[in-house]
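[User] Once you have settled down, look closely at the record that follows, and write a paragraph about the fold.
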Amino acid sequence: MGQPPPRRLSEAGAELAGSLDRSETLDRLARLVVEHLADGCLIDLIRPDGTILREAAHHRDARLDAVMAPLLGGDCVDPGGPSGLPRVLRTGRPKLYGLAAASALDSLAREPGRRAAVRALGIRSLLIVPLVARGRTLGAITLLATSPGRSFSAVDLPTATELASLGALALDTSRLHDEAREAVRRRDEFLAMLAHELRNPMASIVSAAEVLRSAAPLGPGEERAVNVIARQSEQMDRLLGDLLDISRVTRDVLRLDRERVDLLDVLERSLPAAMPAVASAGHRLHLSIAAGPILTEGDAARLSQVVVNLLTNAARYTPRGGNIWLEVARAGNRVELVVRDDGQGIEPELLPCLFELFTQGPRGRDRSPGGLGIGLTLVKSIVERHGGSVSAFSAGPGLGSTFRVLLPLAEPAAGAGPGPGEDPPSPPRGGPDCSDLRILVVEDHDDNREMLRTLLALSGYRVETAADGLAGLEALRNRPDLALLDLGLPGLDGFSVARAARDDASLCDLPLIALTGSSRAEDQAEALAAGFDAHLVKPVLLDELQRLIDRFLRRGPSVADSGRSPASSDRSR
């Protein structure tokens, strides 16, 4: 039979390597065999348990292709057969039948019905070639000659073997890709579970610190201890959030909630989050910020994450008592955000890979200056998803470093927003006093439930609690002013409680806030779809919770009057 020229084999290799999908690779391999080497072909693969699965059965003649249909799938080959296909699969060596023997044909199928289908093809000659990749036999390709006067010879063997090698490598690469994807899926499931399990105890710790702050006046030592607890818990929460976000980046599923954003508002949100790292090291932060508004299109929470990561990175790599500068200015049709420091600087060989995952400068045995080596990777990913760029510069060790972010400016919307120097109008407040407001907390974690109850009670609210979904739904029927519902409740989960409340005409306008230990975008979307008005990730800080309470209970118009525009608050995104 004819052989494809070397150029064709090269093209075949490129075609087989063009997909990581196993089914597509098998289809391409069968088609290439029939186009260049044989009238028809069978492709059999060895399963992990040693059984043999027929993955492809294809013929160039449409009539005979239909005859081959019964040969597909199932455990159709006897692995212990003495000759033919089973022998090739065991030995990993090809076998040529210039004239197809009955025993060779019978080795292609062991059931009588399938053997009848093999006989109906009128096979005159066989060439069985193993699929071997990285020293492992994956299966075999059986080349069929059915045309009158057509048969295989030793001349066909090198080309068939080469094509089988290319196919085996493509199939093994597909397998490795599938295994890697499965490993990533399991890792992401583990991280999501870890987030939930860690955020519950962290939520209790943070809430307990808030309770202590709100209680009787503390002595200097007690106040320092409470501040350490709160600061370190928030740092743990940020690290955990970064780990989860890196998982999203590697899967390319990092979500942006785009809107018109004033970067001055982003800075106002970012500085309180970054200042503990700056202040605890005795650094001085110098601000140079252009007059606003400075508008861009993007996700305010993600842009805040960029600022916080850059500032905490500068604080981490600057010796105690150093200086950090934050500068924001317009640069043509872009905004330039610069964070620089007079710290330890960056070694020249580190600069090209600084934004790669887990890249860090030299670390001592004490692991100082800390961090996971993922913050700058997140910065780069977030900035580029906003259509911007980020770069780093350092004159060398001991000479400080500079990080420069460029983002596209957005034109102010006509007639939108207050004018320069003009304060935005205050939202209507009014409404009942705190002492008249009843808040329901539905949370199965005992410490979280008790700390939230205490925290809200110290803020002046009347608080009711429930420990599971069924009890929570019953408590909702007493019509509190607002409800905080954990999503992972036993019995009836928070999603189901919210849906049941929205189906009840007497509860359809009741403000519902979801509490969860997971910050996945899917959880936020599912919570809003279930009827929640907002979504908070544990640990919940009092000022965050208070803003939402003010929004829903003290703004004058009811939730129903406002159309219940859903919102999400996710501090750790």
